[in-house]
Amino acid sequence: MSTEDIKELIQKFLEGKLSEEKEEFLLSWIKKSETNKNLFLSEQENLQNNLLSSTDRRLEMRWRSLLKKTQNTEKHQKGKIRLRRTASVAAAFILGVLFTFWASETRNVTSALVTQNISTPLGAKTNFELPDGSVVWLNSGSKLSYPSEFGDIRSVKLTGEAFFDVKKDKKHFVISTEYGNVEVQGTSFNVKAFKNEVFETTLVSGIVSITEKNTKKRVTLHPGQQADILESKISVKNVDTELYTSWKEGKLIFREEYLPSAVKRLERWYNVTIELDDDPRLSKIWYSGTLEMESFSEVLELLKVTAPISYHYNEKTRTIRIFYD
């Protein structure tokens, strides 16, 4: 089948016009090779650009249908993925989460265990169950690796941000990040470990211990506390945990957050690039509020009417540049 034929199949599927037999063929074709995956991701990108300021519930339902079929054919994978919409571009990002999950499984040649690698593209979230019954919510632009079966220690590796609801067990649960380790037995908490950003662990319930990677300094958190790591220095403070965990419910909460920090969160949330003009006044603007189902175009207008700024959007590169008025 030619490339154009495949593109036509993808388009028909998105429109809900593909037969069940053709859907199964498309699913098998996508999983066959990297080349097929890349073509599919290219079509995803085209769709993503078209959906910047519109919603398409029907399209999301079609992808949920395909996801369900994927799970039925991948019974050896224990983590059931459930995708949540993120504002107006959810359907396109669901493709990314789904496809990353298909392509991510890698087998360790020296072991019978399989390493599961779950990644979420920018603008998407996913939640799934680990082999021990613990539940993970993975935020946009993040990756979690874990074995298909845990040994004496329940060990996972995180890049980015995730909320964990860890099932109580005598075996310790350890999250490895580039900043250090978080160790628990049974608790719920949020870990943010994005590269070149401040590391944060926010505890909702239970008790967790954090060990800084370089100094090996160890601190223990109690509910309502947060540990930060910056330049190998670890500190603990009391916080409103909702501000740091609401993302898993599809909400972004800002409380007197300065524009440069808010921009980083918006970039991951909506899968866009935001550039601030070289004007020091922009860094002094702060925002408070909650975003839930707003499209990115609506968010831009909200920013504009609540502060002296203007912006320019480049549709080809999905880049927004913000200026001080």
From TrEMBL:
Molecular function terms from GO: sigma factor antagonist activity
Keyword Transmembrane set for record: yes
Keywords from the named record: Membrane, Transmembrane, Transmembrane helix
Origin superkingdom: Bacteria
Domain spans labelled Protein FecR C-terminal: 251-320
Matches recorded under InterPro entries: FecR, FecR_C, Ferrdict_sens_TM
Membrane-spanning intervals of the chain: 86-104
Transmembrane found in the keyword field: yes
A Pfam family that the UniProt record links to this protein: FecR
Annotated protein name in UniProt: DUF4974 domain-containing protein
Record-annotated FecR protein domain positions: 117-208
